[in-house]
Amino acid sequence: MSDQAATAVSRASGLSKHVTGPAGRLTILAGLELAIHAGEAVAILGASGSGKSTLLGLLAGLDDPSAGEVWLCGQRVDQLDEDGRAALRAGRVGFVFQNFQLLPTLTARENVLLPLELTGTPDADRRADAALERVGLSTRMGHYPRQLSGGEQQRVAIARAYAPHPAVLFADEPTGNLDQTTGEHIIDLLLEQRHSSGAALVLVTHDPRLAERCDRRLQMRDGRLEPLQ
Amino acid sequence: MTTWRLTLRLLRRDWRSGELSVLAAALVLTVAAITAVGFFTDRVEATLHRQGSELIAADLVLESARPLAETFAARAQAQGLRIAQTLEFRSVVQGERPQLVLMKAVDAAYPLRGQLRIRSALDASDQAVAAGPPVGEVWVESRLLRLLNIRIGESLNIGATRLRIGAILSAEPDQSRAFFNIAPRVLMNRADLDATGLIGPVSRVTQRLLIAGAVSEIDTYRAWASTQLNAALTLTAARDARPEFSAALERASRFLHLATLVTLLVAGAAIALASQRLVERQTDTVAVMRCLGAPRHLVLRVLIGRLVLFGLAASLLGCLVGWLGQAGLFAALDDWIGVELPPASPAPLLVGLATGLIALLGFAVPPLLQLAQVTPLRALRRDLGTPRLSAALTLSAAGAALALLILWQAHDLELGLKLLGGVLATLLALIGSVLLLVQFAGRLTGRVRGVWRLGLAALTRRSATAVLQISGFGIGILALLLLAVVRVDLLEAWRETVPEGAPNYFLTTIQPADVAPLQAFLSEAGIAAPLLYPMITARLTQIGDRAVEPSAYPNPRAARLASREFNLSYGAEPQADNRIVAGTWWSEGAEAAPQFSVERGIAETLGMQLGETLTFSVAGRTVTGPITSLREVRWDSFNVNFFVVASPALLQQEAASYITSLYLPAAREGVIAELNRRFPSVATLDVEALIDQVRAVIERGVMAVEYVFLFTLAAGLLVMYAGLQASLEQRRREHGILRTLGAGRRTLLTSLAVEFTAVGVLAGLLASVFAEATGWLLATQLFELDFQLNPALWLIGVLGSGVVIGLAGTVATYPLLIHPPLRELRGG
């Protein structure tokens, strides 16, 4: 393992994923190699169905690979069972989803508190409030998701993702459900939070403007990643 | 710590957001029904027992042929119970000629329950009095005046003393105990007894200690006294007073428990449907929690913890609703019930709480286990859906909860097992039929077009949900139709067990020489000639090769039955209201070989088996024959009935008296006075008061059952609402797609109407079949009542449910068509 690979917060080696459907075996990822380092922002682009979201799920330990190794925060994810992967994710990995995925029965503040409470963070309340303040929602803490606009919901999701100070944040089409102006604000916020937290950011997106602002851009093609200039 | 904090937070939020409302309503209803019935039966049974007390003039009676030990009275008084003592013996009084009478000497406290009724002259009306005759006075049965040709105010020689006849004795509360007594009755004050000199050390005297007081104290006393019994000492409680009365009470109790069980089943279906919806709604929440690092065991602990806390909260609320419900009902019926009720015990609360938790765990845990299996990847890919529920796990958990609750609530293992078998068979048949019908609808889909295709395809596309939904609707409609069957048909049949015109007079001790003149007299009086049954007193000496020893029976009732004399009868045909339940009745009529037919209850109590030989001692002669049939007797019909009936060959040569019952309207009571005058040896017993009491039990029972069925009705409606809600989440997305593809609102609305009407018709059809079958089973197997098919039920079941579910389903899902499709597609 090279020094560079050893410092990677997320790494995949020889990563493959196949699924069997009615038309036979379909290869989504074919021996893919990737290393993401602390504080780095990486954009993964690609056509629909090219396997971007599958890769994200595998890197975050949400799914099992068909072959290859996946490392997260220095641990082999593919050798852990589901509970082991959950324990690894807790507090170290943040997520931002296209559909926001806020819990509808919890307020904005309670949604942000959720990952902090799962890890038993002692000053959870203060950190949740600070996270919401950083995304400009200190006045909307008691609101439920249905009482917030799409942009506001995504800001709560960003606050939730960064509140536990994760080592890496995975974002799946974070602007996909937002209009252009709101989308740009969300991009600003994501990158700004990345800088202040020092967490690595792995972004799956169709949006070239968002990709432009990342340190590295990778194109998914035929189950492998190629660097984009 | 994390688990508890998360559990409480999610529970609080889910409760507030209404996420758990259907589940909560189902649980509250279940617990409220169980609790209300618990309180209700506790208190009503106590009230009814109190009324039973009026038939024995006390709450408990200790009876002995020897002087009663002082400890019995002393202990009762020490417990704060009221007591009275009576002595009963046969004697001869002297008038124009000597006459055998049944003397009863009572103290000032008699009667403890009920009232004595007397008349000041033969043609005067009855009046109630609180105590027996004063010192120096006797009250006598009217026929004694005629037999001795004496009048009120004259004196009667009783032993060594003379006592003045103060009044005619019309009724004693415990009169029915001397039902077949041939001698006229004389009531005297106990203080006069010594002066008569009639009671000596060898006199045959029946001594009774009457006891009354608070229910709990009576229970304590009865438990103690039961341990002191011997062959010569028997204990009678209010409930054992009369078989007519306890039969009605038994049925009331069965109806109530059945009503509760139906509510439990229907609410269980609502809980299962609501849990299914909860799983759909919470899948994303669990996926996100798993993404954020919550391990599966934590998720499971949070889900189960939330369920248990929720179950406790909803069950407590249910207990409160149940308590308020019964309190409100009793407050409303205060005057009608007419006696002070004992306070409700806390036991029904615990039963309610336990029932709520068992039902919830049984029906909702499998869906929650399913929820804990949600993969975190679902947060990224919504197309992954929810993990499939294990059918074996779901059925076994729900089956175990059902079995536990039914066996527990039925209060009778045999009844519980029968009910459980019936319920499981019904559920399996229902689900099997639904599966077949859904498959049939699937085949039909390919042959129709447009909205019909869309509507029917929706059924088969979501076949698992459709099966759950149609079964849920089916159970809901089944409950509603059963209400119609039970409420209208069964309860009416129950009322009919004591119809208008039920016999209200018993004529006993009719001598053979009086049979023909009596029939002629009744015919002249315009009363349809009643059937007269021969009656022969006998003592049971052997069952099989076992000698009958009362002390060998640990059950006090069995010991009492074994020690007393039986009134046997004989006949060629069984009585019209008897039903042979085992063996066969002698088909050769009067020519049949010697044999017996025994009432099933007494056969069970005394341990008599079909085929065993019974030996009776009849006036010193031994009579033996095998038991060839067991009968079920409707004691509450007020017809003459016997525990043991023999074939004519066995008893017709014995000296017999005759007995019959007849109905006389109030306006024709004069016939009885004339009958008493013309046939002084015939004893007449007016059972109008007893009939009224049995009718009161039935009426109160009917009302209580209808009250409990209100909960069933609510549960039935709730299960249908839960059924409508069950598929909403899946529908939301499908409609978004269909509308994006250009399906107009009208098209979708019509397809919804087609789908829900089809669901309604299918569920209604199945429910009608099962309602009739269940009604028939209940009527014939459980309540021993007649049953008739009800065509209106089918019409209402099939058409009604088609229209109502078609409309309700369409209206409930209409909001999905109002919102822009993008919102549904984005999952907002």
Automatic annotation (TrEMBL), chain A:
Q: Does the keyword Transport apply?
A: yes
Belongs to which family?
A: Belongs to the ABC transporter superfamily. Macrolide exporter (TC 3.A.1.122) family.
Q: Which PANTHER family match?
A: IMPORT ATP-BINDING PROTEIN, LIPOPROTEIN-RELEASING SYSTEM ATP-BINDING PROTEIN LOLD
Q: Name one GO molecular function term.
A: ATP binding
What Gene3D superfamilies does this protein's entry cite? P-loop containing nucleotide triphosphate hydrolases
| Any single GO CC term annotated in Swiss-Prot or TrEMBL for this entry | transmembrane transporter complex
Task: Identify this protein by name.
Answer: Putative ABC transport system ATP-binding protein
Q: Does the keyword DNA damage apply?
A: no
- List the InterPro entries: AAA+_ATPase (IPR003593), ABC_transporter-like_ATP-bd (IPR003439), ABC_transporter-like_CS (IPR017871), ABC_transpr_LolD-like (IPR015854), MacB-like_ATP-bd (IPR017911), P-loop_NTPase (IPR027417)
| Location of the ABC transporter domain | 10-228
- A Pfam family that this protein carries is ABC_tran
Q: What is the lineage of its organism?
A: Bacteria, Pseudomonadati, Pseudomonadota, Gammaproteobacteria, Chromatiales
| Keywords for this protein | ATP-binding, Nucleotide-binding, Transport
Per the record, the domain of life is Bacteria
Automatic annotation (TrEMBL), chain B:
- UniProt KW Cytoplasm keyword: no
**Keywords tagged on the record:** Cell membrane, Membrane, Transmembrane, Transmembrane helix
Give TM regions.
20-40, 255-274, 307-329, 349-369, 389-408, 420-442, 463-486, 707-728, 748-771, 791-817
Alphabetical GO CC annotations of the entry are: plasma membrane
The record's subcellular location field reads: Cell membrane
Q: What is this protein called?
A: Putative ABC transport system permease protein
Q: Which species is this UniProt entry from? A: Allochromatium warmingii (Chromatium warmingii)
Q: Its topology with respect to the membrane? A: Multi-pass membrane protein
Q: Give the highest taxon in the source lineage.
A: Bacteria
InterPro entries assigned to the protein according to its UniProt record, in alphabetical order: ABC3_permease_C, Membrane_comp_ABC_pdt
Ranges of residues in domain ABC3 transporter permease C-terminal = 260-373, 709-820
UniProt entry tagged with the keyword Protein biosynthesis? no
